[in-house]
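In practice, a research group might receive sequence data for several interacting partners and want a quick structural hypothesis before committing to experiments. The following worked case mirrors that situation: the sequences arrive first, and a predicted assembly follows.
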Amino acid sequence: MTFFVKPQTLSFDSPLVLQSGAVMPPYSLTYETYGTLNAERSNAVLVCHALNASHHVAGCYEGQPNSAGWWDNMIGPGKSVDTNRFFVIGVNNLGSCFGSTGPMHAHPETGRIYGADFPVLTVEDWVNAQARLLDALGIQQLAAVLGGSLGGMQALSWTLQYPDRVRHAVVVASAPNLNAENIAFNEVARRAIVTDPDFHGGHFYEHNVVPKRGLRIARMIGHITYLSDDVMNTKFGRHLRQAAEGNATGYQYTTQDIEFEIESYLRYQGDKFSDYFDANTYLLITRALDYFDPARSYGGHLSTAFARAQCQFMLVSFSTDWRFSPKRSREIVQALLSNRRTVSYAEIDAPHGHDAFLLDDPRYLDVMRSYFEKQVTA
Amino acid sequence: MTFFVKPQTLSFDSPLVLQSGAVMPPYSLTYETYGTLNAERSNAVLVCHALNASHHVAGCYEGQPNSAGWWDNMIGPGKSVDTNRFFVIGVNNLGSCFGSTGPMHAHPETGRIYGADFPVLTVEDWVNAQARLLDALGIQQLAAVLGGSLGGMQALSWTLQYPDRVRHAVVVASAPNLNAENIAFNEVARRAIVTDPDFHGGHFYEHNVVPKRGLRIARMIGHITYLSDDVMNTKFGRHLRQAAEGNATGYQYTTQDIEFEIESYLRYQGDKFSDYFDANTYLLITRALDYFDPARSYGGHLSTAFARAQCQFMLVSFSTDWRFSPKRSREIVQALLSNRRTVSYAEIDAPHGHDAFLLDDPRYLDVMRSYFEKQVTA
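A structural hypothesis for the assembly, expressed as tokens:
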């Protein structure tokens, strides 16, 4: 069932002190809500987004076909996260490029486009900004905070930064921090952007160009890490986009043109992404991923870090996710168990790799439905 | 024991017809030899190189410290491949950038630098060129052909193209073809090079520039795939290059500067590579990798493809190699067994990922020594 939604915007006039010590000048956040806040204001579910997503979590925009939110399969009337019961909030994070204040906007005092001077943000900063939004909406405590991938990190951080403001944390396809390989992929993507001559040190807006070459490479790398080896082989294998005639192999024998289907797919994804995503946002968000590490201030001991958490937890991982493997989710489960927290954990046998958290796997959607129906009180 | 070697060069005046149908004009190959060819000319071992290597397989260059060949730990007097017994040949492949004719050289008729017009090469073409070199050296049959990674593909192809010219094929950390993910990584690396404004469509030589940005990205991606997740975590983990003072995390909070050790390592590797590797060579060699697929002309049936092979085989894989995993080597073993070929197979439990084939794992070097001592006749 399609339902229509409209984004809203809230301005925050008091500056936000960031984890880095820098100060975020007055800013605005774009958000959407689905369902109705109950009289006790106790049925709010906050959805945190990952790298490439936004506040537009569910529903459609009127008059815009194909405008369904990125988790529309999960969230809505009668869905796993049922908006007949819950008041769901999607919020675009600071520094993003989909509505909230980001590097493409002007500093309110100087009037100059932030560009590369936008403050460096962390998951903790996003959570602080989200908490302020909840204050403005008059919500003291969340029924649940929910997120996948980087969104899952924000959900985890909520339980540590505001332990008494969240009753459940649902953390999907996430990790307690990035490992060296995760950081490595982020770094290559960032280097591709930063070394694109059209990046101009992050001040490309005033040159009226966009570092599309770098953004394309960044997105291609991302896509490789989002898919499992298996699903890539099933979907693309070694299929040629167009077999050449007149030779036994069907190869065109070209080093620069597309030969294999997988190349065509990656180039298409890269092109599409470079048309809408902001280069500085990409740097900021990947850096927030790199920096997230709640155990860091506790000598690397995740269980010590989670001693503060009070809520109940649900963790979900996917068997073929090699970006944030089940092993990483189990580390979180173990840290919570050692603190005698209530934890549910589902390891879904799904072929799709990291991307599975956005897809329609029935077991996954059922597990989520079951948790929200039976565990999360409104 | 250090021994000194000197590269040699042989010119081939008759053109080489390539798999693509194109014709390679007269060219030269640079090669080295170690040990002595016996009177029966029966003790020759050909070593085929991978992406980034050359004819300089073993020994050192006089007066050049740190000039040991890339497989010097494996090959030499008294080593696993003992040059007191075997006459070992290392040859730089066509299209490479270390001596043999490549895209940075001039077309012998037009005098123009080949650049992007250098013919597209395949593993099969390299093997044909190597066979001509053996003809010139008066070697009819190899005691063994040996290679790792892309070099292993050449060794495999030898057994199919010249089944009666090779008695043993030793194939290390290789695969019967690239899977979609392997091609995907190659394609991202190529796009980074091709879209670098300094690439000039492959004719950058005449502009006196080098597409270093693209080469750096290509190499960084490569390095990620050469290392295992485990070894990256052990070696780099989340270590900061230099912890900032005055905050609990030690982070500098920067999106463009180096924060983590792994970033520093990758940038260093990328910089180094971009100083010496040719961009067109990178395209040619990764494309040869993409194209290799001996089963392709046999309806995808590897066992049918290997029906032609006559020699004995030794395959080696490494447990943590995710670029060419043990599974891929086992596919080859299975195809050979189904043809009742004599096959040895060693799966080495090594932490280093794909790079392991170049490293000093004692079990690996012992397995190779044992095979060359006990199975390979001189």
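Before designing any experiment, note the following. Chain B has a mean pLDDT of 97. Chain B touches chain A through 64 residues (CB under 8 Å).
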